[in-house]
Amino acid sequence: MKPQLPQLAVELPRVRGPNHPTRATALSAWAATLARTGAAGQVAFDTYFPEAGRYGADAALAAAEAVFCADTTAAIISLRQPPAGLHRDTVVALSMLDIAAAFLGGMRPAADYLTARVIAKPQTIDHRIVGETTRLARHGVPRDLPHLLGDLADAWAARAKALIVYRAALPGQMDTVTVAGSLLHLSYNRHRGINRDHEAACLRLARGAALAWRTSHQAAPA
């Protein structure tokens, strides 16, 4: 995702080598389908330049890219097999809380991080969705909720493991708060597309979920 432009970047493995023509043809057909269905306007293939300044270099970058893959898998599963009875905004908000908990080292630091965020001009979310989200958040770590289907729960668990590895590989001089914000931003784009106003609303919903968890676990360990 390019923050300054309304476009989504899809990172793919290198297509050089003997299979290059076949892969290039498949990518072109995929791009044509996106354009034909209205899922994308202009599609361009460009060179991928790793954002080492944003996510770290070497081992940290490799770990970050593993997180991207794990989160993409989680997003695909949530779109194909949405949890029954849960609104999409609830799933996204709980997913954000789960990412923060895995990356920052537990529910308590995740709650501290999310409740400290200043979220400007969010869209209004239906009070029933807010109530549903906060009720579920009180139970504990989102990925352990029984409301998630097996595949999605497994995907969130795999993503959490990747996030833990990434945090351990992150250079000490990098600001984890800034990195956490980037991770949540990219995850929203994977789950819901590009919509800054709605992203802010989902972040506020995740913040409310974090507050609900904190209220229910004041004296309990994270």
Describe this structure in words.
The chain is mostly helical. The protein folds into two domains: 1-49, no CATH class; 54-216, no CATH class. The chain is 63% helix and 0% strand. The chain is globular. 32% of the residues are buried.
Order of helices and strands: HHHHHHHHH
Biggest sheet features: none
* Range of helix content: 55-70%
- Structurally, the number of domains stands at 2
* N- to C-terminal distance: 32 Å
Work out the radius of gyration.
Answer: 18 Å
**Overall average pLDDT:** 87
Q: Which spans of ≥5 residues are poorly predicted at pLDDT below 50?
A: 1-5
Instruction: Name the beta content range.
Output: under 5%
Number-wise, the strands total 0
In one word, what is the shape?
globular
Structural class by SSE content: mainly alpha
Q: DSSP helix count?
A: 9
Q: Main attributes?
A:
disordered N terminus, 2 domains, 222 residues
Topology of this structure?
Layout: H1 20-37, H2 52-55, H3 59-80, H4 88-104, H5 107-116, H6 127-137, H7 150-169, H8 176-192, H9 196-216
Task: Summarize this structure briefly.
The protein has 222 residues and is an all-alpha fold. The chain is 63% helix and 0% strand. It folds into two domains: 1-49, no CATH class; 54-216, no CATH class.
